Automatic annotation (TrEMBL), chains A, B:
Signal peptide: none annotated. Residues 306-448 form the Acetyl-CoA hydrolase/transferase C-terminal domain. The active site is at residue 273. GO terms for biological process: acetate metabolic process; acetyl-CoA metabolic process. It comes from the Bacteria. PANTHER family: ACETYL-COA HYDROLASE. The lineage of its organism: Bacteria, Pseudomonadati, Pseudomonadota, Gammaproteobacteria, Enterobacterales. The keyword Transferase applies. CoA binds at residues 363, 367, 387. It comes from Gallaecimonas pentaromativorans. This is Succinyl-CoA:acetate CoA-transferase. InterPro entries: AcetylCoA_hyd_C, AcetylCoA_hyd_C_sf, ActCoA_hydro, ActCoA_hydro_N, NagB/RpiA_transferase-like, Succinate_CoA_transferase. Gene3D superfamilies: 4-hydroxybutyrate coenzyme like domains (3.30.750.70), Acetyl-CoA hydrolase/transferase C-terminal domain (3.40.1080.20), Glutaconate Coenzyme A-transferase (3.40.1080.10).
Length: 485, 485
């Protein structure tokens, strides 16, 4: 069937689920056909995906005004503008929760799922491509399924996936993942073949990752963290295998993972969301024995090599539904080391990962909450300043809270590392200001903290100044007026 | 051994763990002896408990300046003052996490554990009294153990407890709790008898609960929630057994639970922290088939009856370590309905449970985060106003975030119920203002929201006014100036 014909199954007001997670494995043809049609004949839908889409699909769907509601994550600048203008209702969710809510009928009934596949088994089982995301549950829960059979996808993908669907609650058995390499399901998504309403042949490619090479600040962050891991090994709190590692998407997490190639580490494992270039560098180095994720997103060169040589990695990789890769119970059970990026943090260690100046959505909370809350060691990294020093990423009071101080064990900037474990708020502030804050902004934060402490409280604040740094940024375009005070 | 002699095992600078959870089953003699000694010869310690202590022990230890550091929870007004003055370093923790951190050596080494017991088995196994809390892991991880053998505790307590200790990570097997009535461990705390350094005979009583009878607002909150449960049954999202229930401590949660006695509910279960009067009323009514908790805290009259007739309840009760009662993975697996109390909420549904005006600690986050994050349905209740209307419990921007909007499905005040599932921030604000806010403060919040929306953003705010309600409360003693604007 043509993409246009298949897209006719999707009508105004419907709830539609699509494959796609961190620019990997998204349905490519049907969304384009939808955008095309909407330009001629307007309609809108609720679109749920795994996470972000590649190939500018969110931009194209936004421009065509197809998106009335969008969840649970995005990273597109056009869609971001529409969200912040209040034009698209964006429901920012913990990535492990979306299908749980859908299964419990708390998000309505899914009409159509559109899933990219590299193969269909004889019984109608769908073999996903470079991501699993929420595809399995979307296909199972939707009334109708459209499959985009991507003929350009490497044959070697078959067998990498491990599809397991938790039972309905309250009668759910424990999910039997006990290590990153636990295989507990099937290598395909088992659905009733009669639900397959259309098969569309495609051959589009995933968008490459946009991770940048480490700059000197990013490298300094990685170095602080590598040193910390060594100290933890010396203190007997970690072994040379550390613990299963989760690393958020992006340049900083990638640089930290690269840093593990050198140093006294061995038999490392990953239990993460997205497998990036650094994952394969670590596998190639022999330091990493196994990597579990929900998607593979690589630079163009790495992608060509990995997809060609998948057999080389076959026994050391699993792709899981994001409900499993991010599952609170499994993250807690495995005792993960979680490394995620903060947009800003406050002096008490509360973290904002999503809202610029408390109001404008950047991307979404993604999986960071799933991991940070339940990990054995929750690490957040950020550069101490942004926009050449116009912005301090350490502020008196974060303008939005995604991760409360309870869920932040370690904060790292290029300035240094703050070990917050077992500390009370006043102690946390001291350690954060002394170790992480840029020298430029340190005196101003010290002044704020001293004045707040003089007023008292478990978590001292001067409420009338708590958000003044963000107010300055909003009105003056920078926080430099705070330096003068 | 006398309490004074046993207390000599505890010396300046030590890390000490004690039994006690929501005023139930705390060690009673040794803490008093410590306070006594410190009045004569000052010293201080780090004190970890399960949760709050009864018998004014936290007050007495604070007055004697025994507490240098205190975790993970408290409810005492004298200790609260010392915490807010910065005199006691209070580490407010998710109640499921304390022993996990201790086990991983992230909180130092525990020197001495002091555990109230109703019996000691021949092999040195400790049978706790009315709470389990963190007692099991404290006894296992401490260098030395002091047992307070309470001769006044009812014999019927033996057999109620189910002690299970999760394995060390990363090689942990799934914890096999699959229902509130799963028994997976031993009825006593298994420790090496050679570690028992002292046995002190006591006969003190637990403090009774201080839950008040429902007032008309509390009753209205309960009524809204019962109506909501009925609607969820009608919509096919819940059955008449609902889901395993967790109810926070306090008057409001108790009133909601009482409300379940009438109405179309049957074969209810609880998977909660503290079992209150309402739990036993529900058991007596036949509506509740099983209750799992970490402690029993009752009014004086109910306590006499329950402790006398424990045999009657024996097959329908389990007391577990708080690491299990609050375990993120188990809460997620069972699909719990979590009902907790907010101090204040903002128009987007972020909840503050701990900090008055963002600075002064009330009690602590307790188990609310363990449950709210991982439940199938996370409900927060609060009266719409406090102090006779001087305070609106719904504000533009909470002065402290304990639970982010992602973790709050339903908000209820005496005014009504806001169902926030699947809504974007701007939609959440509309539903919260219309349904939960007191009529007195509704126009002011509508003004704020309208002005914020005019400025834009995914989560619109006027930063310079966001905390003005709390500033007014701090400087003028009330929020009434906001009404005039
Ligand atoms: C937090 C997050 C936005 C950081 O992104 P990043 O690309 O690694 O970080 P950068 O330092 O490059 O910052 C991105 C932008 O924000 C700006 N920025 C950084 N700190 C800022 C601050 N405190 N205030 C305002 N803007 C800030 C940067 O200047 C940059 O702007 P630009 O795009 O105009 O150049 C990103 O990690 C994220 O979306 N996290 C949430 C989801 C998540 O954690 N997922 C992990 C599991 S996959
Ligand atoms: C939030 C919490 C403090 C509410 O306690 P509560 O006793 O049920 O609620 P009340 O309405 O009686 O309020 C308690 C006090 O706070 C005051 N208060 C209520 N809302 C307030 C607000 N928004 N701002 C300032 N003070 C407020 C009340 O006036 C009352 O003051 P008083 O003690 O001087 O009379 C309590 O539930 C708590 O500590 N929760 C956190 C731990 C938790 O949730 N555990 C659950 C798992 S056990």
């Amino acid at each position: 069937m043509s993409a246009e014909q298949a897209a006719e199954l999707i009508q105004d007001g419907m709830i539609v689920g699509m494959s796609g997670f961190t620019r990997a494995g998204e349905a490519k043809a049907v969304p384009l056909a939808l955008a095309q049609r909407a330009h001629e004949k307007p309609f809108s839908i609720t679109l749920m995906t795994g996470a972000s889409l590649g190939n500018d699909l969110d931009a194209k769907l936004t421009e065509a005004k197809v998106l009335a509601r969008r969840m649970p994550f995005q990273v597109d600048s056009t869609l971001r503008k529409a969200i912040n203008a209040g034009e698209v209702m964006f429901i920012d969710q913990h990535l492990s929760e979306t299908v749980e809510l859908l299964r419990n009928k708390q998000l309505g009934k899914m009409d159509v799922a559109v899933i990219e596949a590299c193969a269909i088994t004889e019984e109608g089982g769908i073999v996903p491509t470079t991501s699993v995301g929420n595809s399995a549950s979307y296909a199972i829960l939707a009334d109708k399924v459209i499959i985009e059979l991507n003929l350009a996808s490497p044959a070697g993908l078959e067998g990498l996936h491990d599809i397991y669907i938790p039972q309905m609650r309250p009668n759910r058995q424990p999910i039997p993942v006990v290590a990153p390499d636990s295989r507990i399901g099937t290598p395909y998504i088992p659905i009733d073949a009669s639900k397959i309403a259309a098969i569309v042949i495609t051959e589009g490619k995933d968008s490459p990752s946009n991770v940048l090479p480490a700059d000197s600040e990013t490298q300094a962050i990685a170095d602080h963290l590598i040193r910390f891991f060594k100290e933890e090994i010396d203190a007997g709190r970690l072994t040379e295998s550390l613990l299963p590692l989760q690393a958020g998407i992006g340049t900083m997490a990638n640089a930290v993972m690269e840093g593990l190639i050198e140093g006294p580490f061995d038999r490392l494992t990953m239990y993460s969301e997205v497998l990036q270039d650094s994952t394969f560098d670590l596998l190639d180095s022999g330091k990493l024995t196994f990597a579990s994720g929900s998607s593979i997103t690589l630079s163009p060169k790495r992608n060509d090599q990995v997809m060609r040589e998948l057999d080389k990695y076959r026994n050391r990789l699993i792709l899981r539904p994001q409900e499993l890769s991010n599952h609170p119970g499994i993250v807690r059970r495995l005792g993960i080391i979680a490394i995620n990026t903060a947009l800003e943090a406050d002096i008490y260690g509360n973290v904002n990962s999503t809202h610029v100046c408390g109001t404008r959505m950047m991307n979404g909370i993604g999986g960071s909450g799933d991991f940070a809350r339940n990990s054995q060691l929750s690490i957040f990294v950020t550069k101490s300043i942004a926009k050449g020093g116009d912005i301090s990423s350490f502020v008196p009071f974060v303008s939005h809270v995604d991760h409360t101080e309870h869920d932040v064990d370690i904060l790292v900037s290029e300035q240094g590392l703050a070990d917050l474990r077992g500390l009370a708020p006043r102690e946390r502030a001291r350690v954060i200001i002394d170790n992480c804050v840029a020298p430029l902004y340190r005196p101003a934060l010290n002044r704020y903290f001293a004045e707040a402490c003089a007023r008292g409280g478990h978590t001292p604040h001067c409420l009338e100044k708590a958000l003044s740094w963000h107010q300055a940024l909003n009105t003056e375009g920078n926080m430099r007026s705070l330096l003068a005070e």
